[in-house]
Amino acid sequence: MDFLEVIEKRHSVRKYSDKPVDKQLLDAIVGVAQTAPSSRNSKSTAFMIIEDRDTIDALSQMRDYGSALLKDAPAAIVVLGDENKTDLWVDNCAISATFVQLAVTAMELVSCWVHCNGRPRLKAEPDGARADDYVRDLLGIKEGLNPYCVIAIGYPEEN
């Protein structure tokens, strides 16, 4: 598939089949994402591949809106930014997350981006608990690494 086909084909998918995603594909997706440009080549973005069903289920509860789709995904990639490497970690994460989604499409998989950076866990409480703090605590992410988004990955539901 050439680049323009990937761009044309990429779209958000929220319903997944239960077919597992091969670990080699997930590693290849992260490999592509690691080539994304970053400010001053800071390489401030890190990735966590999540395949454990219970962990994905828990991630689906990071917000009371917009994250439930994770529950059915066989895999997810958490995109993290290292604030100690650059103050532009948010921008770098966005670029890297886009590379993840393009690589997913090129590999004949589907995805959906679930934002967590600065997002409230409860829509009715915009100044309450934050989704990124929930993800950090759930996954034991060290201080200075900030969860930016979680990208659901899988094969589309066959309907």
Question: Could you describe the 3D structure shown?
Answer:
This protein is α+β, with helices and mostly antiparallel strands. It has one domain: NADH Oxidase (3-Layer(aba) Sandwich). It contains five helices and four strands. The longest helix is centred in the middle third of the chain and has 18 residues, at 89-106. The relative contact order is 0.24.
- Report the uncertain regions: none
Strand adjacency order, main sheet: 1-2-4-3
Strand-pairing-aware structural class: alpha+beta
- For the record, the count of structural domains works out to 1
Spatial shape: globular
The largest β sheet comes out as:
4 strands, antiparallel
- CATH H-level superfamily: NADH Oxidase
Rounded radius of gyration (Å): 15 Å
Percent helix range = 25-40%
Mean pLDDT: 97
Task: Assign the CATH architecture.
Answer: 3-Layer(aba) Sandwich
The CATH first-level class comes to Alpha Beta
Please, how many helices?
5
CATH topology descriptor: NADH Oxidase
Order of helices and strands: HHEHEHEHE
Distance between the termini: 24 Å
Strand content: 15-25%
Give the total of beta strands: 4
Topology (SSEs and partners):
Layout: H1 3-9, H2 23-33, E1 45-50, H3 53-59, E2 75-82, H4 89-106, E3 110-115, H5 131-139, E4 145-154
Antiparallel strand pairs: 1-2, 2-4, 3-4
Helix pairs in contact: 1-4, 2-4
Features:
159 residues; alpha+beta; NADH Oxidase; 4-stranded antiparallel sheet; 5 helices; 4 strands
